[in-house]
Write a structure and sequence with these properties.
Shape: extended
Strand order of the largest sheet: 4-3-5
Largest sheet: 3 strands, antiparallel
Radius of gyration: 18 Å
Order of helices and strands: HEEHEEHE
Number of strands: 5
Number of helices: 3
Amino acid sequence: MTDDKNRNDKVINLFKKSLDRDDTSRQRFFKGFQYVKLTKDDNGNYFKEENLREYAQKCYYIISVMKNNGIGVALYKYKVPYSSLLDFFNVFRNNELYGEIVDIERYIPEDLA
């Protein structure tokens, strides 16, 4: 596993109050969940729908699930493509798979060509 301290040094807290942000990125809530609306990328360009969809299709998610196997706890890591992410969560919702999701990490395979 990677060192959590080093990983956290690279994390940007989008929910931290900042006075220099414009109105479009203020903190908001929907059904009890906090979110931030972003309309531009880090370079100041507006997001393009087709680019975001293309990027999402390349993503996989490594989902760590903790399960008690009777003699102890084991950690199962599932590699889930973006297109199957909601199906994976529905398996938990429908009690078809037991365990507790403890981590979700985005993974983008590198093109070797």
